Amino acid sequence: MAVDFGTYNTVAALSDGERVLLFDGMPLLSSAVYADRSGALVAGRDAAHLARLDPAGFEPNPKRRIDDTSVLLGGREYPVVEVVAAVLGRVADEARRVVGRVPETVLTYPAAWGRRRQGLLVAAARRAGLPVAGVVSEPVAAAYRFAALEGVAAGRTLVVFDFGAGTLDVAAVRAADGGYQVVAYDGVEDLGGLDIDEAVVRHVGRTVAERAPAAWARLTAPGTAEEFRARRLLWDDARAAKEMLSRTSLAPLPVPGYEPGVHLTRDELNDLCRPLLDRAMRTLHGVLAAARVAPPDLAGIVLVGGSSRLPLVADRILRELGVAATVTDQPEVVVAHGALTAHPLPLPA
Ligand SMILES: Nc1ncnc2c1ncn2[C@@H]1O[C@H](COP(=O)(O)OP(=O)(O)OP(=O)(O)O)[C@@H](O)[C@H]1O
Ligand SMILES: [Mg+2]
């Protein structure tokens, strides 16, 4: 089994065939965690639901907390390793249910993560009962998947553009000795779907703060549980509207306390994304330069991660580099699938 622990989603691919584990019927397990009043940790979609009543116990993106020693949930401190283990524990439980045992597991990690962060991930997996066989970096895993589907000749270079929820990771990966090696890498730690959501919320604020200042003040600085709940709803709806705009040109966005709500157009979203994509494209150009490879010589550019579903991403790459990027049906699961066939690295000490 291979497990891609993401900022927003965790994906587990099974070694037999093309299967991924389903969680409540879905291929993506929400990485969110909630601490209930008894101190027990609940991970997955239920965490967000439970947090509606008690937002103080909620951590939507534990991966972003990887450098903290502990996380404060519902007035109690939890070691980060325990919070991550709660998410991976869902994977172990589901594997046990479906396969009958917990299979040997390869874990993926962002290319920017050093030994310490990798070690923490491995410790969390072991705590969750996953027998860890090795680790592999996310872009290398994605390269294996791409190679399995399209084939990459030895010596050729491929670029993986992983635009997820928390970070952007761009890696140039070269095929050599039957494996893949990262030859150039750059990442932006604070550039992902969550940052687009934030830009959408700020955009909504420009309208609502003027028309309903009291409602907007409650949403930006919530005090009561109900106000926290309202803020979370707004963020969830901002994300949903953003995702809908990959498919349509207009999306409604309800705003708690502001009855008319607002509408967002795809052009408005594109304007909001532009400065973020400018940074992403600078990163991509930098990686190509560091890898000393010209766009026409690439074996391909693979788009990975849910945020690469934004049509603007492939459009910009085509316009600036003249390369039609490879888009897969489910960019969220590419890393987990690829990790199954990757040569895993030995475990960090
Ligand atoms: N249709 C869509 N349009 C735009 N963004 C989308 C779409 N579908 C999903 N996303 C975004 O993709 C992100 C989730 O992608 P993914 O599961 O690849 O991230 P992750 O692996 O959890 O994060 P990371 O790799 O940064 O740790 C979310 O921010 C989500 O809003
Ligand atoms: Mg990811």
Automatic annotation (TrEMBL):
Entry GO MF terms: ATP binding; ATP-dependent protein folding chaperone
PROSITE patterns linked: HSP70_3
UniProt keyword annotations, A-Z: ATP-binding, Chaperone, Nucleotide-binding, Stress response
Iron-sulfur found in the keyword field: no
Protein name as annotated: Hsp70 family protein
Annotated transmembrane regions: none
UniProt keyword annotation of Nucleotide-binding present: yes
InterPro entries reported for this sequence: ATPase_NBD (IPR043129), Heat_shock_70_CS (IPR018181), Hsp_70_fam (IPR013126)
Family as reported in the entry's similarity comment: Belongs to the heat shock protein 70 family.
PANTHER family reported in the protein's UniProt record: CELL SHAPE-DETERMINING PROTEIN MREB (PTHR42749:SF1)
